[in-house]
Each structure stands twice: as structure tokens, then as C-alpha cells.
Amino acid sequence: MGRKRRTILPPHEPPDGPPPATNRAFSALLRILDLDQQQAAEALGVERGTVSDYVTGKKTLFPSNYRRKSAGIGVEPAAAEHALALVEEIDGDFQLRTTTPSDFVAAIGRLAERLAASIPARVKELAAEEDRRRFQTLWRALKKLTLAQWRLVVAAAPDLQRWSFVKLVGEESARAASTDAKQALELAGFTLWLAERISGEEGRQSRVFAWAIVGNARRVGSDLDGALEAFARSVELRSECSQELPEVWRLLDLEASLHIDLRQLPEALRLLDEAAQAAPQTGPIRARLLCKLSNALEQMGDSQGSIAALREGMAQIDRDAEPRLLCMLLFNFMESLCAVGRAAEAERMLPELRRLQTQVGSGLNQLRLRWLEGKIDAGLGHLDAAIAALSSVRAAFADEDIRYDEALAGMELAGLYLEQGRTADVKRLVREMEPVFRAKSVHEEAQKALRLFRRAVELETVTVELVRRIVVYLRRAQNDPKLRFEEVA
Q1: What pLDDT was estimated at residue 274?
Q2: Interior CA angle at 36 toward 31 and 41, to 5°?
Q3: I need a surface site. Which of 131, 275, 307, 352 has the fewest CB within 10 A?
């Protein structure tokens, strides 16, 4: 059998039709990277004329070769695929009608200009995704070390001095904020230390985010004045950035939490509205913003608005993909239903919440579930079951030395005793709660309300109405040590 004859295009004749999509995508990548044909040839280890043939389409870049050549000039595989997809996407609109090599080059150049305008953002996004995966692996090892060791490692590894790593460590601080204020502050300090070692625009953007994380950590540590200063610094630095900030919604979200704690609720609502406009309109991010909005509305006394926000938040998430977020939203939703006398609706949701708690809950989460079950029993009129639940919850908080929650559960329990006329049990409860009345973790304004309750018990003038008013006050004042009982009552 004779050898198959190869068809070779004449050196100065263009191929029929436009160059293949792979060739056009390769040409666009050269332009994006600002590589001329000689530089590309050197990177690929080929003659300059070979690169020229790729650009003009005289030599077809088949898909596998296109991927190899793209990698050879430093393009990540995902970015190369994105470039090719963009070329193919606009092929229907792009009609190349030329007859000379120079026309080919001009047409490819015009297409490259169009692609170059759209690819960089995606290339940057893909690079950030790769950084996140790599940094997550590194952080799992790093976080086992001490703060001093973190700094030594980062100082010796300039590759870690990146926005992606700042973001990762900052979000670790934000997660720690819900359980360990000290750790949150330590991580926030490291986030800022890291951000200050990054130069250029990336460094400026990193510092904007880092100061917001510091502000959040100070907030959960009850340093509200320090938190205000940190957020003011973050806002000030935003004006120095020459490019759009990544995830600006997150900055607004964190700042809104501070204004909720400060009881500056109109400002919190404004920030959350801005965050919602800047964030994705569907999915878990929107659900989290709605959860925070519901908290602000609840503190403003708008229980119905709070419930509506939580209901919308639950509709935004994939129940299988986001069990932890769903658990939080559902728990808050059921608590809000109990607060407005709709315990029967909350009871119907208990099986799902219990299932979710089995998946993601532990420790205090299980204790808070038991607390919610007691509230539901109370709302349904099952007072004996409610008393049993709240008694065990109050005792558990006492054992854990979580005095503010012990005070709240104890006041709810006192209200149930009074509904049954069990004044002797109320007096016993006051004696058992003696550590609460001396606890530094219960701020002075809350102590005043509790002393009012104790005095009424001693004088035998305590009423269910007084207890209910104190419960409402304690809930609203938990993060607002300046709120006075008279302002709520």
C-alpha cells in the first residue's frame, strides 16, 4: 500500500474560510498575554514562522495541540478552554470573508480584540479558584501551628502573600466569631498583618477586607468603639482602590452586623440593602443576607417582616447542598413563629429540624434545640413538658457557665411556673440562679432588670406580665449593653 499523500497549503495562499476556532483562540491568548510571535516561539521552542502559521491559520491547531501550545505560553487549561468556548460562541455572528493573508491577520486581530476584552476577568477568576484550592490545603497544615509560626512561614513564602490567602484567613476569623471571640481576633490580626505585606492594588484591596475582618472580630469581643474605628479605616481605604473591589457585598454585610449590635437599625438596613444589590440575586449568599435582615427586623419589632425574610431565605438554598445554612434559617424561622403565637406551625417543622441537627448539630446546638422544643410545648399549652425542657436547659447553661442564656431560660421557666401558680418554685428558682445575679457576663442594664424580678419575687408581687416583659428585654439587650429595660417595656 502506498503512502497516503499529504495536502500542503501553498505558503502564500490562505486556507478556504476562516482560521479554525483553536487558531483564533490561540491568537487572542497571545494578545492578552502581550506576547509577540518571537516571544511565543521562544516559549514554545519552535520557529517564529510556525507561530505565524498558527496565527494566520496556515497550520491548523487541532484541539490537543491547542491545549499544549496554550500551556506552553503559560495559560491555565481552564482559561484556554474558556477562550476557545468564547470563540465558538460568537462564530455565528462572525463572518470572515477574506482573500489575502493580510486580511486574515487583520480579521483575526479584530476578533482577538473582542476576546481580549472578555477573557481577562475569567482568567483572573480561574486563577483565584486555583489559589483558593491550593491555599486551603496549606491552611489546613498551617492552622495547627502558633501565630508566631504562621508569620514565620508567610514571611518566608512570598507566594502566600496574596488576596486569596487574605480572604481565606479572614473568613476563618469570621467563622470563629460565632464561638470564640479570642480566636476570631487573633485570626483577624494575622489577616491584617498578611494584607499589609502585599503591594500594589491587590494589597490595597486586601487591606480594605482585612480591616473589615478586624472590625468584625472586635465587635464579637464587645469592643464596639474599636470595631467602629476598624470599619471606618476599611471605608477610608476603599477610596484609594483604583479597581472594583472583589465581593464588596461582604464588606457591607460585615458592617451591617456592627450596626445591628449598636442598635443603629436603619443604618443596618441600608447596608444590607446595598449588599443585596451587589451580591448574587439567588443562592446561599442571598439567603445569609436575608437571615441577617430578619434579625434586624426582629429587633425593630417587625416580627412579620422577619418571618417573611427567613421564608424567602429558605427558598433560596439547595436543601441538600447547604444543610448547615438551612438548619440555621429553619431554627430562626421556628423561633420567630413561636414568638408570634404560631407554635403549631413550628411543631410541624420539628422532624426536619431534628434531622438537620443530627447532620450538623452538636453540643450547644442540641441544647438550643431542646430549648426550642420547650418553647413550642409552652406555645401549645403543654406546660408540664415545657417546664421539664426549660428546667434541663437552664441547668445545662448553668453547668457551662453561660450565664446570659441561663438568665433567659430561667425567666421563661419562671413565667411558666407563675402560669401554674407555683410561686414556691419561682422562689427556689431565684435561689438557684444566684450566680446569674453576680455574673460579669450579664451586663449592668440586664442586671437591673433581673434585680427588679428578684425584688418582686421577694415581695410576692411578681406577675406573668412582668416576667414576659423582662424576657423580651433580655432578648433585645443581649448585644446592646446600653439598652435600658424601660426603653423596651
Answers
A1: 95
A2: 115
A3: 352
Query: At residue 279, what are phi and psi to the nearest 5 degrees?
Result: -90, 165
d(CA 436, CA 395): 12
CA dist 439 → 69, 234, 398, 442, 463 (Å): 69, 35, 11, 6, 25
How many Å apart are CA 74 and CA 33, to the nearest integer? 9
Name residues of the chain where pLDDT drops below 70. Answer: 1-18, 89-132, 361-363, 487-489
CA dihedral 211, 213, 218, 222 (to 10 degrees): 140
CA distance 248 to 268: 16
Distance CA 135, CA 365 (A): 30
d(CA 150, CA 188): 13
Give yes or no for a contact between 177 and 216, defined as CB atoms under 8 angstroms apart. yes
Would you state the pLDDT for residue 79?
73
pTM of this prediction exceeds 0.85: no
Give Cα 187 to chain centroid, integer Å.
Answer: 16
| SS3 state of residue 193 | helix
Closest CA to 420 of 467, 458, 455: 467
List b or e across 331-353, with b for residues whose CB sees 16 or more CB atoms inside 10 angstroms.
bbbbbbbbbeeebebbbeeeeeb
CB count within 10 Å of CB 167 equals 24
Using alpha carbons, select from 291, 350, 349 the residue that is nearest to residue 317. 291
Any residues with CB less than 8 A from the CB of 232 and at least 6 apart, and which? none
Residue 300 parent element (H or E): none
